[in-house]
Amino acid sequence: MKIISIVNQKGGSGKTTTVSLFAKSFCNEGKKVLIIDTDPQGGISSIYWKGEKKIGLYDILVGDKVELGVNVFHSKVNELIDIIPSDYRLDKIFLTIAPFSLEDCLKDFIKAYDYVLIDTPPTLQGITRASIFFSDKIFVPCEISTQSLNPTIYTLDSIKENKKTAKVIFVGWKDPEEKNGFQNNLAREFKETFKKELIGVIPKNVSTISFSSETKKPSQSVKENVITPILGFV
């Protein structure tokens, strides 16, 4: 069993999409997956859990027993995926919870799964730090934009300060042409900046986004360009 956190201080960096792609890639191999949504915005919960009741991670963190069907639910997307959903109530505590709170609450329950995937909010404090401490592997998805560069550097530095290491996944990166130009120069800058941490690339296109958010079987292109690389990351 492996515990994987998807982290970046930059909002809109592709964390939730990456978690979903990881989950579906593992399920394609017949693996059982638990998704933990630690973001009060509940992005990954909106994809995998459509329940009306606001019950999930918040209740577990304030003392409820972890229990399937009560605060852990079978996904509506894939029978191999379970989810601990998040909701707005987590906003009250997510910045102040203790560093080992997730481990203390969930270490026994997660033994039934092949993979545990943690979607995190755009911060490196509180619940994200607890996710980092809880994880075996940490991946930092990074879109290629001027706004993403410094937050991603900061994220990697903060993870190192917590005595962990992380790998960067470029989202939508394309090999730059030899000629100059804004996007080509930016792609080269990202490649040079993260060359020690870079593990690979996930394409950003209609097929990838559709596979991450809809209930559908992967196309051959998705298998080759998304699933195979992700399985290689872990």
Using the CA coordinates, give the radius of gyration: 17 Å
Strand order of the largest sheet: 3-4-2-5-1-6-7-8
Poorly predicted tracts of residues:
none
Count of separate DSSP helical elements: 9
Element order, helices and strands? Answer: EHEHHEEHEHEHEHEHH
Summarize the biggest pleated sheet.
8 strands, mixed
Mean pLDDT: 93
Q: Looking at the chains present, what oligomeric state does this protein adopt?
A: single chain
Overall geometric form: globular
Structural class by helix and strand composition: alpha/beta
Secondary structure tally: strands: 8
Percentage of residues assigned to helices: 25-40%
Q: Termini separation (Å)?
A: 11 Å
**Which range does the strand content fall in?**
15-25%
Structure in words:
The protein has 234 residues and is an alpha/beta fold. The chain has helices at residues 15-28, 43-48, 57-61, 101-106, 127-134, 146-161, 182-193, 206-213, 220-233; strands spanning 2-6, 33-37, 73-74, 81-84, 115-119, 137-143, 167-171, 198-202. An 8-stranded mixed β-sheet has the order 3-4-2-5-1-6-7-8, with helices on both faces. A hairpin with a 6-residue loop joins strand 3 and strand 4 (81-84). Helix 1 (15-28) packs across helix 9. The longest helix has 16 residues, at 146-161. The radius of gyration is 17 Å and the shape is globular. The model has no long low-confidence stretch (mean pLDDT 93).
